[in-house]
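BUG-193 | component: ligand-complex export | severity: low

The export step for adenosine-5'-triphosphate jobs runs without errors, but we want the raw record kept on the ticket for reference. Input record follows.
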Amino acid sequence: MQLATLELKGFKSFGDKVTIRFDRGITGIVGPNGCGKSNVVDAIRWVLGEQKSRMLRSDKMENIIFNGTKKRKATQLAEVSLTFDNTRNLLPTEYTQVTITRRYYRSGDSEYLLNGVPCRLKDIISLFMDTGIASNSYAIIELKMVDDILNDKDGSRRALFEEAAGISKFRIRKKETLRNLSATDDDLDRVED
Ligand code: ATP
């Protein structure tokens, strides 16, 4: 599975639509301080469902929307799309190209789309589960995370190995199943009542 393109529009410093292509090999993004290099990484983390604005280096989610310049008006919407080449069918879908899109409006409304069709964040998360691609996975490693992994902060090293070993989905399913069992226990108690 190969990352193909990233499209940003109205996200942080990207007022105009910008498309970044990831061709074979390594893609490097260079530029002067403050030009928006880290914003590209934030965009990838965000489109994959990041909910904590702190992880995007913003105090609140609204601040990820382009807030204009002296000469340009702020935009009302931030939109990021990430496209993967799925010719090796690593993603469990028949599509050979998979595009996920996230939109966020100043009103606070937000939308997720999978190949242009509205969906839930849950659908995106399950599609990418155990591929190593998620807003908090090792696919995106920033400098601070390297320190956390080396110091094993909050068991971060274990989480990394579990994701790589492909067992996180079972952990999540176990949690869901235990929740369902507990709800069933409550129902049984009501029957006894
Ligand atoms: P460095 O090399 O110093 O780490 P960088 O290239 O990684 O810098 P970023 O941190 O990605 O730069 O971008 C910072 C820039 O993004 C700042 O100029 C900031 O004003 C701008 N920026 C952040 N949020 C917004 C927003 N909502 N609207 C417009 N510009 C924004």
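Assignee comment: Attached the raw record above. Residues 12-13, 31, 33-39, 63, 65-67 surround adenosine-5'-triphosphate (CB under 6 Å).
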